[in-house]
Write a structure and sequence with these properties.
The protein is of the alpha+beta class. It folds into three domains: about 45 residues, Orthogonal Bundle (Helix Hairpins), CATH 1.10.287; about 325 residues, 2-Layer Sandwich (BirA Bifunctional Protein, domain 2); about 90 residues, Anticodon-binding domain (Rossmann fold, 3-Layer(aba) Sandwich), CATH 3.40.50. The chain contains 18 helices and 18 strands. Helix 11 packs antiparallel against helix 12. Keywords: Acetylation, Aminoacyl-tRNA synthetase, ATP-binding, Coiled coil, Ligase, Nucleotide-binding, Phosphoprotein, Protein biosynthesis.
Length: about 550
């Protein structure tokens, strides 16, 4: 142990020697011409015995450093690995990230837009545990069940991190015997996915859910969910978007008349759901080659799932000789026709497309399903805009609550989820491209002084402002320079400065300065709070 301590001391001393030589070489490179003119020695030795590089030829200096580094490495090799000091990499886990104050400011403003819309439509807020019993989540997500994070046994319960907010909501309804609620829930969920963080996909991410539970007349709650989706995406101003709608009953009816066996409905459904990412030929190859579907059955499916349009397509399919004979499909088409009537009254029908390829792979959907995608402009005139990514989705799930209820009582539900991580990425990229400054605080005013020895007065004033609900700051210096205080406001985006000076104290006023215009006015101290509120009452925008 003593030998190791001695070696550690030698390593430390040798390390200091190497660092000193490198610093002296850097200094010599800067002053070398001047020193040569004065005829100084090329090298000298300091009091610690370290050879100093001054005007020595730089190549010789480099050689000397290399020799000392070699000695240091030899000492470290003798020392060997330190078992007592565990080494670790400073990084976030795969699929996760930290958020800077700037990024958090953007996220909070996006959340504000979403939450205000949810509240405008009368939603209450709930919360549920971040982990659930494993059996609660098992069998609800189809092929995506493999992405659930399982936790180690902790005290006799098998637990998993929640995969979404919908299944915990259904468990909450069944456990509390609720049959009617309009709720929103914003929280993190976890998926053991292969993350693509540049596209806003993570293993830990937020979901923003809105759901309506209860027995109501057909399509009224569904239409409101689509209206909310359109309101939020329009308010966020992230670009043109299109909402694709379909119905699981239409899909199931279509599979039935095309010759798909009941046991393969869900697995074929998950293949069809990939049509927004890959070509029909690739989807067909997967259905035939990997899932054992007959080629002619796949071709019949292809005739349907490549169609999309508006209410006219719904009416066309209602006349389809085969599809109209299937009871499930007929019910789904009838509801979609009614839905389009309501969407027209809400003024959003032009944002909706009936798309037969939309399948939504989750097992719990039973009726209308929808997904919003951002559009990029067409490459050439006359072409249709291309979808560049899903930013919201949802649908009807009338049977999920019944899976948890001991008596199997069903509570019809419909809801939506906003893909906020994707939206955050888009907003951040836009702000970076525009080089826009984002305020990371909401401070309304900085309390400043124009002369020295006014700290007590600054503290009294800022306390009055805080007690009145004003967001205020001061610099943590006894006698800060006025210029430094004004520069701080410009750097952080604080709009106002309340300046205290000896003359202002005598007159019973505060000098209120606008940072942007540099205009100054004297405000009576008793009127200062109202004046600050009046000047800073404008609502914040996203960017």
């Amino acid at each position: 142990m003593a030998d190791r301590a001695a070696l550690e001391d030698l390593v430390r001393v040798q390390g200091e020697r190497v660092r000193g030589l490198k610093q002296q070489k850097a200094s010599a490179e800067q002053v070398r011409p001047r020193r040569r003119k004065r005829g100084q020695n090329e090298a000298s030795e300091d009091r610690a015995g370290v050879v100093c590089i001054e005007d020595r030829d730089l190549e010789e200096g480099t050689r000397l450093i290399e020799e000392e580094v070699a000695k240091l490495l030899k000492l470290k090799a003798q020392l060997g690995p330190d078992e007592g000091k565990p080494k670790f990499v400073l990084k976030t886990p795969k699929g996760t990230r930290d958020y800077s104050p700037r990024q958090m400011a953007v996220r909070e403003k996006v959340f504000d837009v979403i939450i205000s819309c949810f509240k405008r439509h009368g939603a209450e807020v709930i919360d549920t545990p971040v982990f659930e019993l494993k059996e609660t989540l098992t069998g609800k997500y189809g092929e995506d069940s493999k992405l659930i994070y399982d936790l180690k046994d902790q005290g006799g319960e098998l637990l998993s991190l929640r995969y979404d907010l919908t299944v915990p909501f259904a468990r909450y309804l069944a456990m509390n015997k609720l049959t009617n609620i309009k709720r929103y829930h914003i929280a993190k969920v976890y998926r053991r996915d292969n993350p693509a963080m540049t596209r806003g996909r993570y293993r830990e991410f937020y979901q923003c859910d809105f759901d309506i539970a209860g027995q109501f007349d057909p399509m009224l709650p569904d239409a409101e969910c689509l209206k909310i989706m359109c309101e939020i995406l329009s308010s966020l101003q992230i670009g043109d978007f299109l909402v694709k709608v379909n119905d699981r009953r239409i899909l199931d009816g279509m599979f039935a008349i095309c010759g798909v066996s009941d046991s393969k409905f869900r697995t074929i459904c998950s293949s069809v759901d990939k049509l927004d990412k890959v070509s029909w030929e690739e989807v067909k190859n997967e259905m035939v080659g990997e899932k054992g579907l007959a080629p002619e059955v796949a071709d019949r499916i292809g005739d349907y799932v490549q169609q999309h349009g508006g209410v006219s397509l719904v009416e066309q399919l209602l006349q389809d000789p085969k599809l109209s004979q299937n009871k499930q499909a007929l019910e789904g088409l009838g509801d979609l026709k009614l839905l389009f009537e309501y969407l027209t009254l809400f003024g959003i029908a032009d944002k909706i497309s009936f798309d037969l390829s939309l399948a939504r792979g989750l097992d719990y959907y039973t009726g209308v399903i929808y997904e919003a995608v951002l559009l990029q402009p067409p490459a050439r005139a006359g072409e249709e805009p291309l979808g560049v990514g899903s930013v919201a989705a949802g649908g009807r799930y009338d049977g999920l609550v019944g899976m948890f209820d001991p008596k199997g009582r069903k509570v019809p539900c419909v809801g939506l989820s906003i893909g906020v991580e994707r939206i955050f990425s888009i907003v951040e990229q836009r702000l970076e491209a525009l080089e826009e400054k984002v305020r990371t605080t909401e401070t309304q005013v900085l309390v400043a002084s124009a002369q020295k020895k006014l700290l007590e007065e600054r503290l009294k004033l800022i306390s009055e402002l805080w007690d009145a609900g004003i967001k205020a700051e001061l610099l943590y210096k006894k006698n800060p320079k006025l210029l430094n205080q004004l520069q701080y406001c410009e750097e952080t985006g604080i709009p106002l400065v309340a300046i205290i000076g000896e003359q202002e104290l005598k007159d019973g006023v505060i000098k209120l300065r606008s940072v942007a215009s540099r205009e100054e006015v004297d405000v009576r101290r008793e009127d200062l709070v109202e004046e600050i509120k009046r000047r800073t009452s404008q609502p914040l925008c996203i960017c």
